[in-house]
């Protein structure tokens, strides 16, 4: 784990990248910001979490770090020890955790539940969607108080790295660590319209197969009876209407993604 600190004093704001070693957008955003050495208005902590997995070019070494919290300092698993150390680093911090996905190209945010912190911050991020994940947070960093995850774009893409940087800048502006983004910046979070809030309802399972397909678009309503995916060419039809979230053919081993519903907006 690599930790940078900007400013003087004890940081109460933190940005975490590389929870997964195969998602390099976070470390690229952090290193870009560190190289710029901005004058911060409150101290900030920037953390490259799973350096070992990043160096190995794999998602994790022993187990998924984002299923290993709160961790154990005496565990045999590298990620479980790291989870414990990372959680200690983040104590009393408001946190942005940078991720990327195989399912969706535009940035969106995920929270445990919408609370005062996410209501204050998310409308100032360059996202159109916030997803409540409360039923599916066991072992994830998002269970840490005052933590917002963001999916920055497609895994390994230049767009995800660029989005991660501007999401970080917007988060630090929203938490008063950096000045507000200017109107001529590539991302002007101040011009966001209402941010839609979705709530995860249940995973969409997929059985063993040689080939998977997805026909639905994330965050676009799938109607009852509509074809939304396929397993070895056999179509799957919706038993009832739902909104797909994190839906992709190969992003997860045992599920296509999640069914969700809309629950309101943030503005």
From TrEMBL:
Keyword Metal-binding applies: yes
Alphabetical UniProt keywords: Hydrolase, Metal-binding, Zinc
Annotated Gene Ontology cellular component terms: cytosol
Molecular-function GO term, any one: hydrolase activity, acting on ester bonds
Source species, domain of life: Archaea
Gene3D superfamilies recorded: Zn peptidases
UniProt cofactor(s): Zn(2+)
Protein name: Succinylglutamate desuccinylase
Species of provenance: Halogranum rubrum
